[in-house]
Amino acid sequence: MPTLSRQQLVILCLLTLVWGLNWPVMKTGVQHFPPLSFRALSMLIGLPLLALGLLVLKVPFRLERRYWGPLVVLGFFNMVMWHTLIIVAIPLLPSGRAAILGYTMPIFSAALGALFFSDRLPPRAWLGVAAAAGGVFLLLWNEMDKLGGKPTGVALMLLAAASWALGTQLLRRTHIPAPTLTLAFWMTVMTTGCLCLLATLLERPRWHAPDPIAWGTILFNAVLVIGFAQVAWFFLVRTLPPLASTLSVMLIPVLGVFSGAWWLGEILHWQDWTAVALMVLAIASVLWPSRARR
């Protein structure tokens, strides 16, 4: 495990806090505003903040035309699929359970790396994949006893996690010679356009003026999630080894579960507690550094 600088450690801690708390925030927001429109409006507000950041830091906006194709692929898997699927799944699931499923990403990333990118996966990592599968099974089992399409929410969250994992693998291997902020800005532009189109096509009859609670959750997402956390994640992925860049996800699902129980009064069943333990075990088995060889 590489030694992190103070700046990197602070970014990791803030990223974990923002993303962990955002699950009950999103759950609250989509109860007061249509989901796709909620995400699209958050990005519309967050996008100028990203642009302002590039101007203040004197980061170039320009990207050579030959890299537009690879950028579209990165944006599709890293942001479009993730943001669209999770915001549709959030109304179907308790926020804590959605957080657990969404942050199975390191497990998918480890499996994809071993199967398609020639990454060596040690035996303990395969045990971690098995533990994650057990946690997902418990969550799905708990949902099968209920109505309301919640198994659909589980499937959407798992697909979002798999897409994010593939996008992360591609982002680590990209050869686009552009600053991380530049890539983050144009991927956000692309995602904002897709979400605005989907919201217009699917939710226009449900549009209304956001109430104060909706505005609060939208601004939280615009400023902290889109303006800070998304860029911080891309920065860590491109500048640190995989082990360090994914360290923060170990605590995010746990924070999401307990913040949802505290904030929204979500009742935790034995399946949730067991799934949390299995997910943490699984993620730790993949991310925790092995003892250095002599």
Radius of gyration: 19 Å
Structural class: mainly alpha
Total strands: the figure is: 0
Helix content: over 70%
Number of helices: 12
Strand content: under 5%
- Biggest sheet character: none
The assembly state of the depicted protein chains is single chain
- Termini separation comes to 15 Å
Descriptive notes:
Keywords: Membrane, Transmembrane, Transmembrane helix. InterPro entries: AA-Vitamin_Transporters, EamA_dom, EmrE-like. This is EamA family transporter. This protein has 294 residues and is mainly alpha-helical. Helices cover 76% and strands 0% of the residues. The chain contains 12 helices and no strands. The chain has helices at residues 6-32, 35-56, 68-89, 95-102, 105-116, 123-144, 150-172, 180-203, 212-239, 242-245, 252-264, 270-287. The longest helix is centred in the C-terminal third of the chain and has 28 residues, at 212-239. The relative contact order is 0.22.
